[in-house]
Specification:
The chain is built from seven helices and six strands. The chain is an alpha/beta fold. A six-stranded mixed beta sheet has the order 3-2-1-4-5-6, with helices on both faces. The longest helix has 16 residues, at about 185-200. It is globular, with a radius of gyration of 16 Å. It starts with 11 loop residues before the first strand and ends with a helix.
């Protein structure tokens, strides 16, 4: 059988769901600055990164919910290709509705067709400065149940006053809730901690 040395070699498939609404602009910049060094670090050598955004420009009532205020930006790419997508994301037109609950589920359930590898650790990291929102009457309990049943790990970066609205989506575990920072060094340490935990197999 396999030797378990406490180090998880399965590879990590990680989707960032990022709020691009104007109010979150400074945090996005620091997030990109914080994650950039990690994309060159050996820690992410077996990571693949995907990206979805919420809070983008409203595409109108005729658009299906999945693409009305949010969209899948890129399927999984290696760490060294991910930065260009994060930078391009900053140029997208933003809007005022952030369906964070829905988009997190859509990343997992195939509505956004991410090519999750069967044996990978499957991770979604949501970053927003708004309270948990839905445009499809979805709720965090359902999203959490889906994640547990299908082997997904969810982490959320949200303002402290909104943490409770997301707690039910992260297994009720406060350690999976972070606060977005404008200081890129803080973001670097927060994300590095998550990545290290994934490498150890949380």
């Amino acid at each position: 059988g396999e030797v378990d040395e406490g180090f998880d070699t399965r590879g990590v498939d990680l989707v960032f769901v990022i709020d691009i609404s104007g109010s979150f602009e400074d945090e996005i910049t620091s997030m990109i600055q914080g994650i950039t060094p990690l994309l060159d670090d050996p820690i992410t050598s077996n990571f693949r990164f995907g990206l979805a955004v919420i809070g983008r420009q409203d595409s109108g009532h005729f658009e299906p919910p999945e693409t009305r205020h949010s969209e899948m930006v890129t399927n999984f790419v290696p760490a060294d290709e991910f930065l260009e997508y994060l930078q391009a994301m900053q140029l997208m037109d933003d809007g005022g509705i952030e369906p964070s609950i829905d988009a997190t589920l859509w990343c997992m359930d195939g509505s956004y067709p991410f090519a999750w590898a069967p044996r990978s650790q499957k991770v979604v990291i949501l970053m927003t400065d708004e309270i948990a929102q839905t445009i499809t009457s979805q709720n965090v309990t359902n999203v959490n149940a889906y994640a547990i049943e299908n082997g997904f790990e969810i982490f959320v970066f949200a303002l402290p006053e909104h943490h409770n609205s997301f707690l039910g989506m992260v297994r009720g575990d406060h350690n999976r809730l972070y606060t977005p920072a404008v200081n890129s060094e803080t973001v670097f340490l927060q994300i590095k901690q998550i990545f290290e935990d994934l490498c150890l197999g949380i």
